[in-house]
């Protein structure tokens, strides 16, 4: 996309002066209904999003430090594009928030039209986007629109009746004095009293993150304008929407309000808008709830959502060595998604910046981390890797202290690109990550976890059955064995994961088969595979009717 630097300067001027955004943007898809209200339609899933994609999540402050100040930055990512493009061969990246913010994590935005100076400049970000786009990699930015920072100029004006712009911004946030409607709210959890305004504002996550009022058309237009800026003027390829199901939170609306439907209606409207700006823009959302029926309805207004239920099921299964409901739950979820849109794409992953790292969940058992990755890359959907997962980084998300799962990435033992941690707002390296081999060391070790990930990425990208094939559960007779079928046309693969700790004989009824992939040496005898603990097989069983016994 063309980068209009003149428009960038104009946008900064508008924000710095808090000028009113009163120019109404006309969405070409907004046809009025009989009441004169604009109507919005469910848009087709972005063609840039595919089941064979492998994508990568980067926590910017922790990834690559280009100038030696201890902080990861945008130039550091630019300098290491080769790792993303030629080593991992990713198809897209998602950057955790990069907007100006008083916190290290940046989920409390103070300026939606700029880059936090700790990370670099907006021109450097444009260079990053252009560079990755030139290599066919999409760039998604974290779009935090449920709330802003307490220090955002909008909230400063909204909370202060004496502020010169109070009248313009007083209804940009969710306020309630509870004088006449207290009985309509079953709880005041998340509501914070502010003396100068003599009212409560709503903040579901933290009192420093007041929530925007999406019943205000001006707020909706602000968000659309901001998205247009990043899509059109900067060139990003889409957004990861933070806290999507909290746009209308259950606690911020009166009892009986269909807050989910209000959320879905907003996202239909918003997705309609961003597709009018760029028909291939990707809308990826965080909806952290273990109900595939609820999540399916959100797909009316977005391309894909992270599958938290599958991630939690998968980690639990590998950790306990019992297959559980990983496959059956995923089959059911995909059925629900398909009822809403046939072109859905699932986004599957193992962990992210809010969860225990895989090695933390498995008490540093690398064999379990390997088999978890085997499962991830043989299930359908876009496969997401949290930075450092491919190296075996460890971290546990303690209540109120999430820095341990966001530790500095390790390029090599002596790399100048290693962020320092500690004074950056990220915790110092824990003992595991201090002794962990970095990218350079693991690339030279054929048995490393990184090389295992690279093998799995090639397996997925090189086999259409594993990317486009249907998913079907298949019965096993051992609780520590997970098995499923992936089928495309006349080709069917049987995928087997042995989750147990000791070697086991997996009996089968196959007459003609060929092994496509094996994560460990497999001994074949008449009617059985001897599989090591935490190992996997992918077998071509096309034409067979009976599989495991």
Describe this structure in words.
This protein has 549 residues and is of the alpha/beta class. The protein has 17 helices and 21 strands. The protein has an eight-stranded parallel sheet. It has a five-stranded antiparallel sheet with strand order 14-15-16-21-18. Strands 6-8-7 form a three-stranded antiparallel sheet, with no helix packed on it. Helix 9 (292-298) links the parallel strand 10 (282-285) and strand 11 (304-305). The longest helix has 19 residues, at 259-277. Mean pLDDT is 91; it is low at 1-28.
The gist of it:
This protein is α/β, with parallel strands linked by helices and 549 residues long. It is 30% helix and 16% strand.
Keywords summarizing the entry:
disordered N terminus; globular; 8-stranded parallel beta sheet; 21 strands; 17 helices; alpha/beta
Strand segment tally: 21
Q: Rg, please? A: 24 Å
Mean pLDDT: 91
User: Main sheet: which strands, in order across?
Assistant: 11-10-9-5-4-3-13-12
């Amino acid at each position: 996309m063309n980068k209009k630097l003149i428009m960038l300067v104009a946008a900064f001027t508008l924000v710095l002066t808090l000028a009113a955004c009163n120019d109404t943007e006309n969405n070409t898809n907004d046809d009025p209904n009989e009441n004169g209200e604009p109507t919005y339609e469910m848009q087709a899933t972005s063609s840039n999003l595919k089941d064979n994609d492998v994508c990568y999540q980067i926590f910017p402050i922790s990834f690559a430090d280009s100038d030696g100040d201890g902080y990861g930055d945008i130039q550091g990512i630019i300098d290491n594009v080769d790792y993303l493009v030629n080593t991992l061969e990713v198809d897209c990246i998602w950057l955790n928030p990069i907007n100006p913010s008083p916190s290290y994590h940046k989920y409390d935005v103070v300026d939606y039209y700029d880059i936090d100076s700790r990370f670099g400049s907006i021109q450097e970000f444009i260079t990053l986007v252009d560079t990755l786009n030139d290599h066919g990699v999409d760039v998604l930015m974290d779009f935090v629109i449920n709330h802003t920072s307490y220090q955002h100029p909008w909230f400063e004006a909204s909370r202060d009746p004496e502020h010169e712009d109070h009248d313009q911004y007083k209804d940009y946030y969710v306020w309630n004095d509870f004088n006449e409607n207290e009985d309509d709210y079953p709880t005041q959890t998340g509501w914070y009293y502010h003396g100068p305004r003599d009212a409560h504002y709503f903040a579901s996550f933290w009192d420093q993150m007041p929530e925007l009022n999406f019943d205000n058309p001006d707020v909706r237009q602000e968000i659309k304008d901001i998205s247009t800026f990043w899509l059109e003027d900067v060139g990003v390829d889409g957004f990861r929407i933070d806290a999507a199901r909290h746009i209308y939170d259950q606690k911020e609306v009166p009892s009986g309000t269909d807050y989910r439907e209000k959320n879905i209606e907003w996202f239909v409207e918003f997705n309609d808008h961003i597709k009018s700006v760029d028909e291939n823009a990707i809308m990826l959302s965080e909806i952290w709830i273990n109900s595939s029926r609820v999540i399916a309805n959100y797909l009316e207004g977005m391309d894909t959502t992270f599958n938290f239920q599958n991630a939690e099921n998968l980690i639990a299964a590998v950790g306990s060595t019992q297959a559980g409901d990983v496959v059956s739950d995923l089959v059911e979820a995909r059925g629900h998604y398909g009822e809403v849109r046939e072109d859905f794409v699932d986004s599957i992953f193992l962990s992210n910046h809010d969860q225990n790292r895989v090695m933390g969940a498995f008490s540093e058992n690398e064999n379990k981390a390997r088999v978890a990755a085997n499962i991830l890359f043989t299930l359908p959907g876009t496969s997401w890797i949290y930075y450092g997962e491919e190296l075996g980084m460890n971290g546990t998300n303690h209540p109120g202290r999430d820095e341990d799962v966001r530790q500095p990435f390790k390029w090599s033992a002596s790399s100048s690109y290693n962020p320092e941690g500690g004074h950056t707002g990220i915790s110092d390296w824990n003992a595991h990550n201090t002794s962990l081999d970095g990218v350079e060391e693991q690339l030279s070790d054929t048995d490393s976890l990184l090389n295992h990930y690279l093998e799995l990425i090639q397996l997925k990208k090189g086999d259409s059955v594993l990317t486009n094939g249907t998913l079907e559960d298949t019965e096993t007779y051992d609780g520590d064995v997970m098995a499923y079928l992936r089928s495309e046309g006349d080709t069917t693969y049987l995928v087997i994961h042995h989750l147990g700790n000791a070697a086991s004989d997996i009996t089968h009824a196959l007459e003609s088969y060929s092994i496509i992939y094996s994560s460990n040496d497999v001994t074949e005898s008449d009617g059985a595979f001897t599989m090591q603990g935490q190992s996997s097989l992918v077998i071509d069983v096309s034409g067979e009717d009976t599989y495991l016994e």
